[in-house]
Hints:
Layout: E1 7-16, E2 22-25, E3 32-35, H1 43-49, E4 57-62, E5 76-80, E6 95-100, E7 103-113, E8 116-120, E9 130-141, H2 144-149
Antiparallel strand pairs: 1-2, 1-3, 1-9, 4-9, 5-8, 6-7, 7-8
Residues 149, 151, 153, 159 line the site of zinc ion.
Amino acid sequence: MLIATNSVVAIHYTLTxxxxxxxxxxxxxxxxVYLHGAGNLIPGLEHALLGRTAGDNLSVSIAPSDAYxxxxxxxxxxxxxxxxxxxxxxxxxxxxxxxxxxGPINVTITAIEGDEITLDxxxxxxxxxxxxEVTVDAVRKATEDELLHCHVHGxxxxx
Length: 159
Ligand code: ZN
C-alpha cells in the first residue's frame, strides 16, 4: 500500500542538523505513527513520504520554509524581571507559555542580564535546515474515527 492522504503511517526516523548532530529520533521498536495529510508532520517530510511504501528508506533535507519556518527577529524581546512572579526562579532555556493579542505563544529564555530577560518566541528549530533518515515501517488506511479526529488512535489514546 502506498502512502497517500488518510494513510496511517509508522516511520522510524533520525533527525540531524546540517552538522550531523542528532536532534531527535524515534526510539528502538517505537516508530512514530501519524495520519498522512492532516498536518501532523512538517510539510517537507509529509511531501517526501507521499507515494512511499513499507520498507522504503529515504534521506531528505528540508529547508526551514518546509519545516518550522524562518526565524522571526520580532519574536525576540527583552522584558523586565518584574514581569515574572516574586520568587520565580529563572534560568536559560526555561520555557513559558503566554498569551498575546495574536494568540498563545511559547517562549524560551535565551539571555539573562541583570533585571533584563530575553524571551524568544521562535520555535527552537526555526531557521534550521533539517535532515531526516527515514524508514517506512507500516502503512494502513485510517478508520472513520481517526479521520474525524485528525489523529491516529491506538495504545495511549484518551477516549
Ligand atoms: Zn481521537
